[in-house]
Design brief:
The complex is a heterodimer of chains A (376) and B (85). With 376 residues, chain A is of the alpha/beta class. Chain A is 42% helix and 18% strand. In chain A, strand 11, helix 9 and strand 12 form a beta-alpha-beta unit. With 85 residues, chain B is of the alpha+beta class. Chain B has one domain: Alpha-Beta Plaits. In chain B, 12% of the residues lie in helices and 14% in strands. Chain B contains 2 helices and 3 strands; from the N terminus they run ββααβ. The longest helix of chain B is centred in the middle third of the chain and has 5 residues. Chain B is elongated, with a radius of gyration of 17 Å. The chains are: A alpha/beta (376), B alpha+beta (85). Chains A and B meet through strand 9 and helix 8 of A and strand 1 of B. Strand 9 of chain A pairs antiparallel with strand 1 of chain B, so a sheet runs across the interface.
């Protein structure tokens, strides 16, 4: 019996390893900092015959997603990755993937967007794709990146909706952490080969995404909206089955830390939420009953799980690494308030924007911010 | 999840008239002069709507949009465009 293996890997390497484990068929890629190293790993895996896939070097991100859409429509299991302005350049074709109901899985390595230019992380890039009809995960560790990509293929191919796996540039993509690689056989069992019930096939010609009249168009959009929400049980099931296959667990739709008796709840996503566990410990040492609620699944927003998990009368401190332009704070706070309204009137929501353009979010800084928010 | 049927995905299969009665758009109709026609098949090859029969040069007016490409390409001038009533 083969056992798991532990290597030292960056987040980018963890993502590439997961793609290899998923036995992906086609990888269209275009480099952009800080995502570039994922594509370098992919190109080298294909070149060295570690992965039996077609690597397509394209001339830009719009083409990368177009190639991903075409390959997925032809029945391939597809992966690509991007960051920041590359993701923005894909925007139009992201709608093609979701409206076309194609189970593309993509990593977005979070980076702030121009102007002015920045190379470092915040979440404005992926948040700006909120309304493209993609499911979005946000990961807080290298291992979670690996685990989540495999779960994402499982979910995407069950419900035929594309999935974006987000993680912070540099803090995750370029930092080394131990990475557990389960035996390939376990993953093969968890993630069987992709067998779509429809694909573009010259032997049985069909055309894809024709013009529709309103009476046809509207139901397609309604079904996409319904099915995105219907993916929540599949996300939970995939997390559970992955745990049974590998023993690894990062939470399902949400991840919590010292939450049960918490009076002050930190609410954040991505790498800052991993650091926030340490902030919670600092606050607990100071006598504050702090806890953490981290949505792993950002879209669909796991409303029911959040409502069920928040302790009575909690003050929720939403730490947003993005701006909700036109509102005073960030987008996560807005999402959370819309979920709580009329259902959890006992909860107080406070919000700060931080960590923009890669400003370091340390455990002490965030603990101090939460303390300051308590007095507001 | 109840929508997980073939209908949730925007796919269409080729069939005659899948695009509707497109011949109703026509302003000018191509008319073939069988005396001049040499059955060279140029019109069949050029027709963007594939509504001309290859061997008998019969035009399917249900789907012919009247674009006039066949009349332009016909080497013997056997096809004329006549205004629809």
């Amino acid at each position: 019996m083969k056992t798991a293996q532990v290597i030292m890997a960056t987040g980018a390497n963890a993502a590439a390893q997961a793609v290899k484990y998923a036995r992906v068929d086609v990888v269209p890629g275009y480099p952009i900092t800080p995502q570039t190293s994922i594509m370098e790993y992919m190109a080298s895996m294909v070149e060295n015959d570690e992965l039996n896939a077609r690597f397509i070097p394209v001339e830009g991100e719009h083409s990368a997603m177009a190639a991903a859409v075409a390959a997925s429509a032809a029945g391939a299991r597809v992966f690509t990755a991007t960051s920041s302005n590359g993701l923005l350049y894909m925007h139009e074709v992201l709608h093609m993937a979701s409206g076309g109901r194609l189970p593309v899985v993509m990593c977005n390595v979070n980076r702030g967007i121009f102007a002015p230019w920045t190379l470092w992380s915040d979440h404005q890039d992926s948040m700006a794709q909120r309304d493209t009809g993609w499911i979005q995960y946000h990961c807080s560790s290298n291992q979670e990146v690996f685990n989540t990509i495999l779960q994402a293929y499982r979910v995407a191919e069950q419900i035929n909706i594309p999935i974006m796996v987000n993680f912070d540039g540099f803090a995750i993509s370029h930092c080394l952490m131990p990475l557990t690689l389960p035996p390939q056989e376990d993953i093969d069992q968890f993630l069987p080969p992709h067998k779509p019930e429809w694909r573009l096939d010259p032997a049985n010609p069909s055309s894809f995404s024709n013009v529709t009249m309103a009476a046809e168009y509207a139901p397609f959009r309604q079904m996409l909206s319904d099915d995105i929400i219907a993916s929540i049980p599949l996300v939970k099931q995939a997390a559970q089955e992955y745990k049974e296959a590998t023993g690894m667990w990062d939470g399902d739709t949400i991840d919590t830390y010292r939450l049960e008796d918490a009076e002050v709840v930190a609410f954040a996503i991505n790498s800052m939420a991993a650091e926030l566990k340490l902030s919670v410990d600092i606050l607990r040492e100071q006598g504050i009953k702090a806890g953490l609620l981290r949505p792993r699944l950002y879209l669909p927003f796991p409303a029911e799980d959040i409502i069920a998990a928040l302790p009575q009368n909690a003050q929720v401190m939403v730490l947003d690494r993005n701006y909700n332009f036109g509102h005073p704070g960030g987008i996560l706070a807005s999402e959370l308030k819309s979920v709580l309204f009329g259902r959890r009137n006992d909860i107080t929501v406070k919000n700060r924007v931080m960590g923009i353009g890669g400003i370091d979010l340390t455990r002490r800084f965030m603990a101090a911010e939460i303390r300051a928010m308590m007095d507001e | 999840m109840k929508s997980l049927t073939k209908a949730y995905r925007p796919i269409s299969w080729p069939m005659l008239g899948a695009g509707g009665d497109t011949g109703s758009w026509r302003v000018h109709r191509p008319v073939v002069d069988v005396q001049k026609c040499t059955k060279c098949q140029f019109c069949w090859a050029y027709c963007p709507e594939a509504v001309i029969d290859r061997h008998e040069i019969i035009i399917d007016y249900r789907y012919c949009k009247g674009c006039g490409v066949c009349a332009v390409e016909c080497p013997t001038g056997a096809i004329s465009m006549e205004k629809e009533e």
